[in-house]
Hints:
The chain is 13% helix and 38% strand. By secondary structure, it is mainly beta. The chain has a four-stranded antiparallel beta sheet, covered by helices on one side. A four-stranded antiparallel beta sheet has the order 2-3-7-5, with no helix packed on it. The protein is elongated, with a radius of gyration of 17 Å.
Amino acid sequence: MPFAEQVWSRVGRIIVLALLALSLTGPAVVLGERSGAAGWQLVPSGSSPRVRITDNPVTGLYPGVSKELILTLHNTDPKHDIVVRHVRIRDIATTKRGCAPTRRNLTIRQYKGAPLRIPPGRTRTVTALLSMPNTVSDACQRATFKLRYTARTRIEANP
């Protein structure tokens, strides 16, 4: 195998392991945002603390490949429907100094579907697409990409 293919193969395996590690971190608090290995964090303004977001494990991601990221939105409000108007996924940081959280290293195709109504205690899923472009920096080898998920919501009265 040529040296360049060996490097890209190693980068792919490392990133897959890093993304898998991110997906296995469990929720510590019921809130609506997650920042990779750092765990759950406070919700920014415009989001609702009534929605908890969890993800699926992403494996097999390497330069030139795309994989689905499935987010599950949990309505934690015991009395009201929640309408999720917008879900946003951001690559906010990496664990390596020379590996910037940019589209050159990880591309995220956001969920573009219609708003979702989630009854009390129920869940809905949305799908986004993660891609590792061929332009990924060599500095990203062994890096962990930290993703942040946010949901913009409103409370709906039950009929």
